[in-house]
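Fold this complex.
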Amino acid sequence: MKLSLQRRIAAEFIGTLFLLAAVVGSGIMGERLAAGNVALALLANTIATGAALIALILAFGAISGAHLNPAVTLADALRGGFAWREVPAYILVQVAGAVGGVIVAHLMFGLPLLAVSTHNRSGPSQLFSEFVATFGLLAVIWGCARRRPSAVPYAVGSYITAAYWFTASTSFANPAVTLARCMTNTFSGIRPADVAGFIGVQIGGAIAATLLFQWLAPIAKADSTAQTAEHDR
Amino acid sequence: MKLSLQRRIAAEFIGTLFLLAAVVGSGIMGERLAAGNVALALLANTIATGAALIALILAFGAISGAHLNPAVTLADALRGGFAWREVPAYILVQVAGAVGGVIVAHLMFGLPLLAVSTHNRSGPSQLFSEFVATFGLLAVIWGCARRRPSAVPYAVGSYITAAYWFTASTSFANPAVTLARCMTNTFSGIRPADVAGFIGVQIGGAIAATLLFQWLAPIAKADSTAQTAEHDR
Amino acid sequence: MKLSLQRRIAAEFIGTLFLLAAVVGSGIMGERLAAGNVALALLANTIATGAALIALILAFGAISGAHLNPAVTLADALRGGFAWREVPAYILVQVAGAVGGVIVAHLMFGLPLLAVSTHNRSGPSQLFSEFVATFGLLAVIWGCARRRPSAVPYAVGSYITAAYWFTASTSFANPAVTLARCMTNTFSGIRPADVAGFIGVQIGGAIAATLLFQWLAPIAKADSTAQTAEHDR
Amino acid sequence: MKLSLQRRIAAEFIGTLFLLAAVVGSGIMGERLAAGNVALALLANTIATGAALIALILAFGAISGAHLNPAVTLADALRGGFAWREVPAYILVQVAGAVGGVIVAHLMFGLPLLAVSTHNRSGPSQLFSEFVATFGLLAVIWGCARRRPSAVPYAVGSYITAAYWFTASTSFANPAVTLARCMTNTFSGIRPADVAGFIGVQIGGAIAATLLFQWLAPIAKADSTAQTAEHDR
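Structure:
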């Protein structure tokens, strides 16, 4: 039985808030403790983010689908598993939750509520990385959705753990995350000037993977609502 | 079939003992071997704690529910899934087990049985961190309890793995753990003066998350006993 | 219901491409950030590869079987679970996907499309390591195939995570991967001169494990198609 | 359907061989690459061992029960789940497999087949650590055996991952492993003089946990054969 939209967007808000708190907070902690060793800081950031995704998708998957990501919401709508009329509400609370998560992380580490990032992430390598990262994320989601939706939390957490290291951009792969991360001038930040490009290629990657999987792994109509996490059926 | 209270509190005692042995012992080992690199010491501490939680909740979940945490016991009682009359016994053995775990860790590493910590963990950032940490822990537990209780061990282990890094306090998120950790003057210790504040906000965070999820993800009466681990049904 | 060969080889292509992007990309990132500490670089490479395997086998297992490895395809055919007439197509797209993955990794990190590796991996220790690595990989696959095919993604990801460290060669264990890795002059590369030896012992190890398990854990005829991931039944 | 004893002891031999190859091999690799940082070497050793256990128990659990450990075999016999007359054969191949694994690791890393360890692991802290480590291992196994045997591979892998760090002895917790590790003069070695003490307290810990769980979590007669991995039922 599907829960009310109100409940579902509350879940998206809290889930995305915790996701950003995890990404930004662990970046701050990692950088503070790593004594200048960037590999160690990113390793901490990676393990925290991957583990947070597993926990959050397990917890919120059965409530809201645990998209926590406008690219996932759009892809799900594109494939017919999510009502277009609910897309704006989902994206709005994802962005609001993401910004809220940055604020929570800053408060936990005694920093100003928000700050403009100066972290340069520009150039074709970065943009191509984000295209690949988001293409792969949606490929993993659609690949699991057809036959083993209950594995999605582990698949997504594992995928992002890997993608933090195998893409040059450390795999944002999420427009709400990208937008919020320009508001923190810490390890995980991104300059506001680089945000639009990131979001553009992320959406491109998500659409490309979704179209490919529409052919590659057709989902029966009744099953077509699979997204980040197993659905409520 | 529910096991006798005697058996269940024995399980809570042993489980919490091993949890603290893992937290404190791996902190000692990590600090000894890390040659001053705090990120590496915390990484070892994190991996050991998260893995221990998975193993312990898998092992004790079907016996006692594997609360291992007074905040979880209180929250479960608050939600109607656990009898209030059994709460004192659970909390008592959780605290006793936690202190026992510190002693066991000290014995394994050749230290005096107990020692007063001098590790300062005060200030609003620390307190806010513990509120967030415990709110998130209960959110994850309640989120999973409704639809996939068998995933709770992985969700909780993953959540704490992340929270060690994304909160400024390294996420105690457990009053029994907090109390016991003031009795070790090693990596994972906390000054006795800071304990009461931590416990207060932990209980606050647990209650807040529980009230929120009472609305967010209603559990049918018959299912309302879900907690740290899947229940015995 | 089995999907068309066209769809299945597309899945093998994309899966192997992402596998190589993960192996090569994370090697580049690890080496760049680790400031000369090879253990840290290999740890990043390991975590990324193991996590990528879990995600990719979960995603592509139900489409193509997620072999992503000619040694697995050959072993599956040898055991009767895969049609010999489809073997060439599978191997071809695995190799093509692997090379594609190297190119994608190089593009993401701003390197020339392909480069000849100068990484010496020769000598009997290296060859014996690859025999052991691939024997173990197939042992793990066949061991899981009989009774719990749905655990294969986790078993394979875990096995390779371990084997990166317990073999002297860092466990290529995959002819397509080996061939493609001679085209990157980065952390994970291998000299072209060392490729043939690696592939030879990999196939030897795969055949040896397959013959052993044919006796050790007989699979009923109807179940004989198990391979890297649970099959479509 | 239970497989023949011949098949089951072959599985125990190969499984224990790979377990030791993983423990010893990753210790060698970790020490070689870690440039003197013992925390990093142990972290590599830990991740490889925990991951190997997950893969091996998943693969061999349904064949032989994947004891891979004389303490588990004894405990299972003590509890009535394993025939006493098969105990000697199991223990014999576990020890032989363990020694074989050390040889395989040495061959992979270009070392002499066997060597006497000079690694001092003596004193009451070490012995108490091994008692705790093995008590905990059997507690985890018996805790899972009753209700979720299919989680044993993950529980045991996670437990040992934690115990490598929270015990002062790095948690051998296995008499066959202990015996074999006195034959390698590398990171994971142990002096022959320290072996008997380790094995004695390991067996003591295993028996203590087994007796406790006989009361704590009674298993119905028909279910009493649970051990390291889910059984063949």
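Residues 94 and 113 of chain C are 18 Å apart (CA to CA).
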